[in-house]
Amino acid sequence: QGDFSQRITPIPQDEIGDLCKAVNDMASALSETEAMKNEFISSVSHELRTPLTVILSESEYGQTYADNLADAKESNAIIHRQAQQMKAMVEQILELSRLESHEELSLVSLNLSNLTKQKLQDYQQLLADKAIQLNSDIDENLHISGNELLINRLLDNLLSNAMKFTKSQIEVTLKAQGKKCQLVVADNGLGISKTEQEKIWQKFYQVDAARSKSEQQGVGLGLSLVQEIIRQHHGRIEVVSSENQGARFIVTIPLRTN
Q1: What distance in Å separates the CA atoms of residue 183 and residue 169, rounded to the nearest whole number?
Q2: CA distance 53 to 156
């Protein structure tokens, strides 16, 4: 009847007991899945409620009270921004769902060194416009087995995250370490507390807005997506940070052997 908290007790010490234990284990797994589903639906509903409220309010204002073209354009601009935010969230949800469905990725040989340098070049003007200094140290010709689209998404999210929270500087390094390579993206922002470090990988979680330089907050899916991309590439990610000491995101991915 959908109540997965029910358990069979007591459990006899025989074949029937083995069956009872299997049923209890299945009920526990279903209960956990149900809780995750409910939490996800609640989070999505919460994140959509604000932009939808703003869109409805602004469209009503534009329809009823806007007396001139300037007022109408201002309302349209607000509606457009909120719609873009909703679009970005839906796209990231779909991408996360696809990755988490364990569909087999098409992996090819990628020169991670070149991809990283190209990405930094793409961000150079944007960083300059924000008066952010970029320091980089990239080893040459480090090849991995990867999906180019997802690796570019990984780099985009890590760099965007660093830009959002840094004070004035970002450091990017890519180094070989035996049979693996290590990518580090570091900022000199306010850092991440130990409590928040445990939560930043959760879907829709956002750190205190006061820590961010950016006026445009994300939807809290970027690091969840980063973590899933790295998992799909048989790597790992960790964050090293303390308050007022910046943050270092460290990605380790196996090097391609042939």
Answers
A1: 17
A2: 30
Statement: the pTM of the whole predicted model exceeds 0.70: no
**Which residues make Cβ contacts (< 8 Å) with residue 16, sequence separation at least 6?**
none
Question: Per residue in 6-19, pLDDT tens?
Answer: 888 888 889 999 99
SS3 assignment, position 66:
coil
If you search the block for the tokens 């590439």, which residue do you land on?
233
* C-alpha torsion sign, points 257, 181, 99, 117: negative
Sheet with 169-177, strands from edge to edge, namely 133-138, 169-177, 180-187, 247-254, 236-241
| Angle 126-130-131 from CA coordinates, rounded to 5° | 115
Residues whose CB is less than 8 angstroms from the CB of residue 132 and which lie 6 or more positions away in sequence, other chains included: 163, 166, 168, 169, 170
pLDDT (tens digit per residue) in 152-197:
889 988 998 899 889 999 999 999 999 999 999 999 998 888 888 8
43-83 tens-digit pLDDT? 666 667 767 888 888 888 888 888 888 888 888 888 888 88
Q: 113 and 142 in contact (C-beta within 8 Å)?
A: yes
181-200 as b/e: b if 16+ CB within 10 A: bbbbbbbbbbbbeeebbeeb
Is the pLDDT at 138 greater than 90? The verdict is yes
Query: Where would I find the H helices in the chain?
Result: 15-64, 69-100, 112-129, 148-165, 194-197, 222-232
Distance (Å, rounded) from C-alpha 55 to C-alpha 53?
5
Is the distance from CB of 116 to CB of 155 less than 8 angstroms? yes
